Fold this protein.
Amino acid sequence: MKEMLEKIKAEAAAKLSEENADLEAIRVQYLGKKGELTQVLRGMGQLSAEERPIVGQMANDVRAYIENLIEEKKASAASAAMAKKLLDETVDVTMPVEPVTVGSRHPLSQVQTELEDIFIGLGFEIVEGPEVEYDYYNFQALNIPENHPARDTQDTFYITDNILLRSQTSPMQIRAMEQKKPPLRIISPGRVYRSDAVDATHSPLFHQLEGLVVDKGITMGDLKGTLELFAKKMFGDDTKIRFRPHHFPFTEPSAEVDVSCFVCGGKGCSLCKGEGWIEILGAGMVHPNVLRGCGIDPEVYSGFAFGLGIERIVMRKYNIDDMRLLYENDVRFLKQLG
Ligand code: DAH
């Protein structure tokens, strides 16, 4: 029996030393209920009384030996697995990381906010209105009756005969005067539409910002002072403004307003095309017909208005020569301005 026990011990040890030994199968084979060691122990009854404790002790030793070996194998397999896991999952903290790209606001939104901040600082209130507008607000109430030639320059998209996509933000002048009694100081930014073919300086959708002030005793001097302050804040303290006579049906007198070129300061450069001046907006004193149409007595009140194209300001500010770049959402372009 002793030899059998020795044999079991040696065999089990040999099996357990194999590379991919199946520990559970080996345990069952030798130590299980029907295992080889158990079989040997069953035969203990045939031993003499002297031999029995000796063989019993030996059998226990063999069992403990095999159990130990199995435990050791298990522990070393677990630590090998952990070592492999650690190696596989090693993070090289010195590797350069993928840059996290954070978006930025679109230049049109940035400039719109800048404009809003300037006028809020001057005491203006922001109002917003519909892009789908009545002919009445977009044209008639602005002193542009049917068949007026000014309609041709602002050909827009018609939904019905008297509902259209607004071609300018000026209808907000009328809506503001209908809703509030003077004194009134508002700006109104937003989208406008014209049925223009897309090219470097035209788009069927673009953005304007309208301004309107109505109170007792408002003069052209107030208009000039306001626009000069605005121009200095927007384009720098040295900026000068210039008024050129113009015609808009809803203002009288009307002007186109230029700012001195903020690149060359007025000497003439590629941005201002050698002019020294850059046109930025239209403005004028609110026409008495417009005030009257809104129930405001032009003998008591007067006002000024102005309207500017936000794209135009963005393009001048960043020296962009093609308006389409602002709508194509090419991040390579937007990143340069963001
Ligand atoms: N609405 C005019 C346009 O789109 C711009 C404009 C000119 C607005 C003079 C005004 C203004 O308020 O007084 O061409």
Observations:
- The two ends are 89 Å apart (CA to CA).
- Strands lie at 125-126, 132-134, 163-165, 184-193, 205-215, 241-248, 251-260, 277-286, 302-309.
- Residues 168, 170, 210, 248, 251, 282-284, 305-307 surround 3,4-dihydroxyphenylalanine (CB under 6 Å).
- DSSP finds twelve helices and nine strands in the chain.
